Amino acid sequence: xxxxxxxxxxxxxxxxxxxxxxxxxxxxxxxxxxxxxxxxxxxxxxxxxxxxxxxxxxxxxxxxxxxxxxxxxxxxxxxxxxxxxxxxxxxxxxxxxxxxxxxxxxxxxxxxxxxxxxxxxxxxxxxxxxxxxxxxxxxxxxxxxxxxxxxxxxxxxxxxxxxxxxxxxxxxxxxxxxxxxxxxxxxxxxxxxxxxxxxxxxxxxxxxxxxxxxxxxxxxxxxxxxxxxxxxxxxxxxxxxxxxxxxxxxxxxxxxxxxxxxxxxxxxxxxxxxxxxxxxxxxxxxxxxxxxxxxxxxxxxxxxxxxxxxxxxxxxxxxxxxxxxxxxxxxxxxxxxxxxxxxxxx
Length: 346
Fold this sequence. Notes:
Elements: H1 2-12, H2 27-31, H3 36-52, E1 64-67, E2 72-78, E3 101-108, E4 110-118, H4 120-124, H5 128-155, E5 181-182, E6 189-190, H6 200-211, E7 227-230, H7 235-243, H8 257-262, E8 265-268, E9 283-286, E10 292-307, E11 314-328, E12 332-335
Parallel strand pairs: 1-10, 7-8
Antiparallel strand pairs: 2-3, 4-11, 5-6, 7-9, 9-12, 10-11
Helix pairs in contact: 3-5
Protein backbone atom coordinates (compact mmCIF):
# COMPACT_ATOMS: atom_id res chain seq x y z
CA UNK A 1 0.00 0.00 0.00
CA UNK A 2 2.84 2.44 0.85
CA UNK A 3 4.53 1.77 -2.44
CA UNK A 4 1.26 2.35 -4.30
CA UNK A 5 0.81 5.77 -2.64
CA UNK A 6 4.36 6.82 -3.47
CA UNK A 7 3.96 5.81 -7.12
CA UNK A 8 0.65 7.65 -7.32
CA UNK A 9 2.22 10.83 -5.96
CA UNK A 10 5.03 10.64 -8.46
CA UNK A 11 2.59 10.10 -11.29
CA UNK A 12 0.59 13.17 -10.19
CA UNK A 13 3.59 15.49 -10.38
CA UNK A 14 3.39 17.65 -13.55
CA UNK A 15 6.17 16.88 -16.00
CA UNK A 16 8.05 20.01 -17.05
CA UNK A 17 8.35 20.41 -20.84
CA UNK A 18 11.86 20.21 -22.23
CA UNK A 19 13.47 21.19 -25.50
CA UNK A 20 12.93 17.61 -26.67
CA UNK A 21 9.24 17.24 -25.91
CA UNK A 22 7.83 20.78 -25.83
CA UNK A 23 6.07 20.59 -29.19
CA UNK A 24 5.55 16.84 -29.63
CA UNK A 25 1.87 16.73 -28.65
CA UNK A 26 -0.52 14.16 -30.07
CA UNK A 27 -3.95 14.89 -31.53
CA UNK A 28 -5.44 13.53 -28.32
CA UNK A 29 -3.45 16.09 -26.31
CA UNK A 30 -4.76 18.91 -28.46
CA UNK A 31 -8.35 17.77 -28.18
CA UNK A 32 -8.17 17.41 -24.41
CA UNK A 33 -8.70 20.85 -22.93
CA UNK A 34 -7.49 19.76 -19.52
CA UNK A 35 -4.00 20.12 -21.02
CA UNK A 36 -4.39 23.79 -21.91
CA UNK A 37 -1.57 24.79 -19.55
CA UNK A 38 0.84 22.47 -21.35
CA UNK A 39 -0.27 23.69 -24.77
CA UNK A 40 0.21 27.35 -23.86
CA UNK A 41 3.56 26.94 -22.14
CA UNK A 42 5.88 26.88 -25.20
CA UNK A 43 4.42 30.08 -26.65
CA UNK A 44 4.35 31.96 -23.36
CA UNK A 45 7.88 30.83 -22.57
CA UNK A 46 9.07 32.14 -25.94
CA UNK A 47 7.33 35.48 -25.37
CA UNK A 48 8.92 35.78 -21.93
CA UNK A 49 12.50 35.26 -23.05
CA UNK A 50 12.13 37.31 -26.25
CA UNK A 51 10.78 40.22 -24.23
CA UNK A 52 13.44 39.83 -21.53
CA UNK A 53 16.15 40.12 -24.19
CA UNK A 54 14.51 42.73 -26.43
CA UNK A 55 16.55 45.61 -24.94
CA UNK A 56 20.33 45.18 -24.65
CA UNK A 57 21.34 44.74 -21.04
CA UNK A 58 23.17 47.66 -19.45
CA UNK A 59 24.46 46.33 -16.13
CA UNK A 60 27.05 44.08 -17.82
CA UNK A 61 28.82 47.16 -19.21
CA UNK A 62 30.03 48.14 -15.74
CA UNK A 63 30.17 44.80 -13.84
CA UNK A 64 32.33 41.72 -14.04
CA UNK A 65 29.52 39.20 -14.68
CA UNK A 66 30.34 35.85 -13.09
CA UNK A 67 28.60 32.54 -12.37
CA UNK A 68 28.29 30.96 -8.95
CA UNK A 69 27.52 27.41 -7.82
CA UNK A 70 27.48 28.21 -4.09
CA UNK A 71 25.10 29.90 -1.69
CA UNK A 72 27.68 32.58 -0.85
CA UNK A 73 30.71 33.94 -2.68
CA UNK A 74 33.60 35.43 -0.71
CA UNK A 75 36.57 37.55 -1.69
CA UNK A 76 39.42 38.08 0.72
CA UNK A 77 41.60 41.12 0.33
CA UNK A 78 45.17 41.39 1.47
CA UNK A 79 47.78 44.05 2.05
CA UNK A 80 50.43 45.13 -0.44
CA UNK A 81 54.20 44.91 -0.71
CA UNK A 82 56.10 48.10 0.04
CA UNK A 83 59.38 49.11 -1.59
CA UNK A 84 62.01 46.47 -2.15
CA UNK A 85 64.90 46.47 0.32
CA UNK A 86 68.26 47.61 -0.94
CA UNK A 87 70.88 44.91 -0.68
CA UNK A 88 73.74 46.55 1.27
CA UNK A 89 76.06 43.57 1.30
CA UNK A 90 76.56 40.43 -0.71
CA UNK A 91 75.87 38.51 2.49
CA UNK A 92 72.48 40.17 3.13
CA UNK A 93 69.52 37.80 3.35
CA UNK A 94 66.12 38.37 1.77
CA UNK A 95 63.71 40.32 3.94
CA UNK A 96 60.52 38.27 3.68
CA UNK A 97 57.27 40.14 4.02
CA UNK A 98 54.01 38.81 5.45
CA UNK A 99 51.07 40.59 3.88
CA UNK A 100 48.46 42.06 6.20
CA UNK A 101 45.22 40.06 6.30
CA UNK A 102 42.46 41.74 4.40
CA UNK A 103 38.74 42.12 5.01
CA UNK A 104 35.96 39.77 3.98
CA UNK A 105 33.89 40.70 0.93
CA UNK A 106 30.72 38.60 1.03
CA UNK A 107 28.21 38.13 -1.78
CA UNK A 108 24.92 36.56 -0.66
CA UNK A 109 22.65 35.53 -3.53
CA UNK A 110 19.06 36.73 -3.20
CA UNK A 111 16.21 35.00 -5.01
CA UNK A 112 13.43 36.84 -6.84
CA UNK A 113 10.14 35.52 -8.20
CA UNK A 114 7.10 36.71 -10.13
CA UNK A 115 4.14 34.87 -11.57
CA UNK A 116 0.73 34.99 -13.23
CA UNK A 117 -2.27 32.68 -13.63
CA UNK A 118 -4.47 31.83 -16.59
CA UNK A 119 -7.98 30.49 -15.98
CA UNK A 120 -9.71 27.78 -17.97
CA UNK A 121 -12.27 30.34 -19.09
CA UNK A 122 -9.60 32.60 -20.56
CA UNK A 123 -8.36 29.66 -22.57
CA UNK A 124 -11.84 28.50 -23.62
CA UNK A 125 -12.82 32.00 -24.73
CA UNK A 126 -9.52 32.36 -26.63
CA UNK A 127 -8.40 35.54 -24.86
CA UNK A 128 -4.92 34.97 -26.25
CA UNK A 129 -4.01 38.63 -26.62
CA UNK A 130 -4.52 39.07 -22.90
CA UNK A 131 -2.50 35.95 -22.16
CA UNK A 132 0.37 37.24 -24.32
CA UNK A 133 0.59 40.42 -22.27
CA UNK A 134 1.30 38.56 -19.04
CA UNK A 135 4.71 37.01 -19.84
CA UNK A 136 5.74 40.28 -21.49
CA UNK A 137 4.90 42.28 -18.38
CA UNK A 138 6.62 39.73 -16.13
CA UNK A 139 9.79 39.70 -18.24
CA UNK A 140 10.02 43.49 -18.30
CA UNK A 141 9.57 43.77 -14.55
CA UNK A 142 12.34 41.20 -14.08
CA UNK A 143 14.70 43.20 -16.30
CA UNK A 144 13.81 46.38 -14.44
CA UNK A 145 14.54 44.77 -11.06
CA UNK A 146 17.93 43.58 -12.27
CA UNK A 147 18.98 46.93 -13.75
CA UNK A 148 17.74 48.89 -10.71
CA UNK A 149 19.71 46.70 -8.33
CA UNK A 150 22.86 46.98 -10.45
CA UNK A 151 22.60 50.78 -10.58
CA UNK A 152 21.94 51.04 -6.83
CA UNK A 153 25.58 50.22 -6.02
CA UNK A 154 26.63 53.50 -7.63
CA UNK A 155 23.60 55.51 -6.52
CA UNK A 156 24.14 54.52 -2.87
CA UNK A 157 27.90 54.89 -3.16
CA UNK A 158 27.82 58.30 -1.48
CA UNK A 159 25.76 57.09 1.52
CA UNK A 160 28.24 55.45 3.82
CA UNK A 161 27.45 56.69 7.32
CA UNK A 162 25.29 53.68 8.12
CA UNK A 163 22.36 55.90 9.04
CA UNK A 164 19.15 56.63 7.20
CA UNK A 165 17.42 55.29 4.12
CA UNK A 166 19.74 53.87 1.49
CA UNK A 167 22.81 53.95 3.77
CA UNK A 168 25.50 51.73 2.39
CA UNK A 169 28.97 50.77 3.55
CA UNK A 170 31.48 48.59 1.75
CA UNK A 171 33.85 46.10 3.38
CA UNK A 172 36.17 48.76 4.89
CA UNK A 173 33.36 50.56 6.71
CA UNK A 174 33.38 53.55 4.35
CA UNK A 175 31.16 54.76 1.57
CA UNK A 176 32.08 53.33 -1.81
CA UNK A 177 33.14 56.85 -2.79
CA UNK A 178 35.17 58.33 0.04
CA UNK A 179 38.08 60.60 0.90
CA UNK A 180 39.24 58.31 3.69
CA UNK A 181 39.59 54.67 2.62
CA UNK A 182 42.03 53.05 5.09
CA UNK A 183 45.19 51.41 3.73
CA UNK A 184 46.30 48.17 5.40
CA UNK A 185 50.06 48.71 5.12
CA UNK A 186 50.26 52.50 5.15
CA UNK A 187 49.26 55.38 7.41
CA UNK A 188 47.78 57.19 4.45
CA UNK A 189 44.27 56.99 3.03
CA UNK A 190 42.79 56.34 -0.40
CA UNK A 191 40.52 58.79 -2.19
CA UNK A 192 38.00 58.00 -4.94
CA UNK A 193 35.48 60.80 -4.34
CA UNK A 194 35.47 63.52 -7.00
CA UNK A 195 33.58 66.82 -6.88
CA UNK A 196 31.89 69.17 -9.28
CA UNK A 197 29.46 68.91 -12.15
CA UNK A 198 30.49 67.07 -15.27
CA UNK A 199 32.64 69.60 -17.13
CA UNK A 200 36.08 69.85 -18.68
CA UNK A 201 37.86 70.81 -15.45
CA UNK A 202 36.22 68.30 -13.11
CA UNK A 203 36.59 65.43 -15.58
CA UNK A 204 40.31 66.07 -16.02
CA UNK A 205 40.70 66.33 -12.24
CA UNK A 206 38.94 62.97 -11.81
CA UNK A 207 41.15 61.37 -14.48
CA UNK A 208 44.19 62.56 -12.51
CA UNK A 209 42.65 61.26 -9.28
CA UNK A 210 42.19 57.84 -10.88
CA UNK A 211 45.90 57.66 -11.70
CA UNK A 212 46.80 58.62 -8.10
CA UNK A 213 44.87 55.79 -6.41
CA UNK A 214 47.25 53.88 -4.09
CA UNK A 215 47.48 50.23 -3.14
CA UNK A 216 47.48 49.21 0.54
CA UNK A 217 51.17 50.05 0.85
CA UNK A 218 50.70 53.53 -0.58
CA UNK A 219 52.20 52.80 -4.00
CA UNK A 220 50.41 53.92 -7.14
CA UNK A 221 48.33 51.25 -8.85
CA UNK A 222 48.28 53.28 -12.08
CA UNK A 223 44.64 52.89 -12.98
CA UNK A 224 43.41 54.48 -16.20
CA UNK A 225 39.90 55.81 -16.74
CA UNK A 226 38.34 54.04 -19.71
CA UNK A 227 34.60 54.44 -19.05
CA UNK A 228 32.46 57.46 -18.14
CA UNK A 229 29.25 56.16 -16.55
CA UNK A 230 26.36 58.61 -16.58
CA UNK A 231 22.56 58.98 -16.38
CA UNK A 232 20.66 59.93 -19.57
CA UNK A 233 20.52 63.60 -18.52
CA UNK A 234 24.31 63.93 -18.95
CA UNK A 235 24.62 62.16 -22.29
CA UNK A 236 24.75 65.34 -24.37
CA UNK A 237 27.30 66.89 -21.99
CA UNK A 238 29.47 63.76 -22.12
CA UNK A 239 29.46 63.65 -25.93
CA UNK A 240 30.45 67.30 -26.13
CA UNK A 241 33.28 66.78 -23.64
CA UNK A 242 34.75 63.67 -25.20
CA UNK A 243 33.96 64.05 -28.89
CA UNK A 244 34.44 67.77 -29.60
CA UNK A 245 37.53 68.93 -31.44
CA UNK A 246 37.85 71.97 -29.17
CA UNK A 247 37.40 72.32 -25.41
CA UNK A 248 33.73 72.87 -24.63
CA UNK A 249 32.80 76.14 -22.92
CA UNK A 250 36.08 77.80 -23.83
CA UNK A 251 36.26 81.20 -25.55
CA UNK A 252 39.54 80.19 -27.12
CA UNK A 253 40.30 77.79 -29.92
CA UNK A 254 41.90 75.32 -27.50
CA UNK A 255 42.30 71.77 -28.74
CA UNK A 256 40.50 68.96 -26.95
CA UNK A 257 43.23 66.51 -27.89
CA UNK A 258 43.80 65.36 -24.29
CA UNK A 259 40.28 64.01 -23.76
CA UNK A 260 40.01 62.84 -27.37
CA UNK A 261 43.18 60.78 -27.06
CA UNK A 262 42.10 59.16 -23.80
CA UNK A 263 39.51 57.08 -25.64
CA UNK A 264 36.98 57.09 -22.80
CA UNK A 265 33.81 55.11 -23.55
CA UNK A 266 30.50 56.73 -22.65
CA UNK A 267 28.21 54.30 -20.80
CA UNK A 268 24.64 55.52 -20.26
CA UNK A 269 22.62 53.68 -17.60
CA UNK A 270 18.94 54.56 -17.66
CA UNK A 271 18.44 53.50 -14.04
CA UNK A 272 21.04 55.96 -12.74
CA UNK A 273 18.73 58.88 -13.53
CA UNK A 274 16.41 60.78 -11.21
CA UNK A 275 13.36 59.27 -12.91
CA UNK A 276 14.47 55.85 -11.59
CA UNK A 277 15.36 57.08 -8.11
CA UNK A 278 18.93 58.11 -8.84
CA UNK A 279 20.45 61.45 -9.81
CA UNK A 280 20.65 63.50 -12.98
CA UNK A 281 23.93 65.12 -11.88
CA UNK A 282 26.08 62.25 -10.52
CA UNK A 283 28.76 60.77 -12.78
CA UNK A 284 31.42 58.08 -12.48
CA UNK A 285 34.77 57.09 -13.98
CA UNK A 286 35.86 53.46 -14.18
CA UNK A 287 38.91 51.50 -15.24
CA UNK A 288 36.98 48.99 -17.31
CA UNK A 289 39.63 46.27 -17.23
CA UNK A 290 40.77 46.42 -13.59
CA UNK A 291 37.76 47.39 -11.46
CA UNK A 292 36.26 45.00 -8.89
CA UNK A 293 32.52 45.59 -9.28
CA UNK A 294 31.14 42.05 -9.44
CA UNK A 295 27.77 40.56 -10.34
CA UNK A 296 27.19 36.87 -9.59
CA UNK A 297 24.46 34.85 -11.30
CA UNK A 298 23.42 31.94 -9.10
CA UNK A 299 20.40 31.17 -11.29
CA UNK A 300 19.65 33.05 -14.48
CA UNK A 301 15.95 33.78 -15.20
CA UNK A 302 13.84 30.67 -15.72
CA UNK A 303 10.21 30.15 -16.70
CA UNK A 304 8.09 27.21 -15.48
CA UNK A 305 4.46 26.25 -15.11
CA UNK A 306 2.00 24.04 -13.24
CA UNK A 307 -1.70 23.33 -13.71
CA UNK A 308 -4.06 22.89 -10.77
CA UNK A 309 -6.39 19.90 -11.08
CA UNK A 310 -9.33 21.28 -9.06
CA UNK A 311 -9.40 24.95 -10.13
CA UNK A 312 -8.41 24.55 -13.80
CA UNK A 313 -5.88 27.36 -13.28
CA UNK A 314 -2.51 27.24 -14.99
CA UNK A 315 0.23 29.01 -13.07
CA UNK A 316 3.37 30.38 -14.67
CA UNK A 317 6.28 31.81 -12.74
CA UNK A 318 9.70 33.29 -13.22
CA UNK A 319 12.67 32.81 -10.90
CA UNK A 320 16.15 34.29 -10.74
CA UNK A 321 18.87 34.53 -8.13
CA UNK A 322 21.91 36.79 -8.02
CA UNK A 323 24.16 39.02 -5.93
CA UNK A 324 26.27 42.07 -6.66
CA UNK A 325 28.79 44.29 -4.90
CA UNK A 326 32.36 45.53 -4.88
CA UNK A 327 35.49 43.71 -3.78
CA UNK A 328 37.74 46.78 -4.04
CA UNK A 329 36.93 50.48 -4.11
CA UNK A 330 39.84 51.07 -6.45
CA UNK A 331 39.16 51.38 -10.16
CA UNK A 332 35.96 53.43 -9.75
CA UNK A 333 35.55 57.14 -8.96
CA UNK A 334 32.28 58.95 -8.32
CA UNK A 335 31.01 62.51 -8.08
CA UNK A 336 27.56 63.65 -7.00
CA UNK A 337 27.83 66.47 -9.51
CA UNK A 338 27.95 68.98 -6.67
CA UNK A 339 30.79 71.38 -5.87
CA UNK A 340 31.48 69.95 -2.40
CA UNK A 341 31.83 66.32 -1.27
CA UNK A 342 28.75 64.73 0.28
CA UNK A 343 30.55 61.70 1.69
CA UNK A 344 30.29 61.37 5.49
CA UNK A 345 34.05 60.71 5.42
CA UNK A 346 34.83 64.14 4.01
